[in-house]
Prior knowledge:
By secondary structure, the protein is an all-alpha fold. It has helices spanning 2-42, 45-57, 59-74, 84-95. It has a single domain, classed as Orthogonal Bundle (Helicase, Ruva Protein, domain 3). Helix 1 (2-42) packs across helix 3, helix 2 packs antiparallel against helix 3 (59-74) and helix 2 (45-57) packs parallel to helix 4 (84-95).
Amino acid sequence: xxxxxxxxxxxxxxxxxxxxxxxxxxxxxxxxxxxxxxxxxxxxxxxxxxxxxxxxxxxxxxxxxxxxxxxxxxxxxxxxxxxxxxxxxxxxxxxxxxxxxxxxxxx
Length: 107
């Protein structure tokens, strides 16, 4: 009888953990949908399409860009809608890495 109670308790704990994980994932998905809706309002359709292409190819860069766009909107640095050209400029700024300089010293 004690073995059955232990198994039942373990099942309850497993179900509780699974429920918490599902709730966490649901909250994350809802937050992502809200972020996407906010950014979609700020952008032209072409710019939004480019953003979704970035999302597919480089999720980390997409997250950085999304955070930047939302921060810009909150600080009122966005006037009008963001065009595809402006989005490309932001992408260039985010991914800019200065070229390393290699020098050869001849004897």
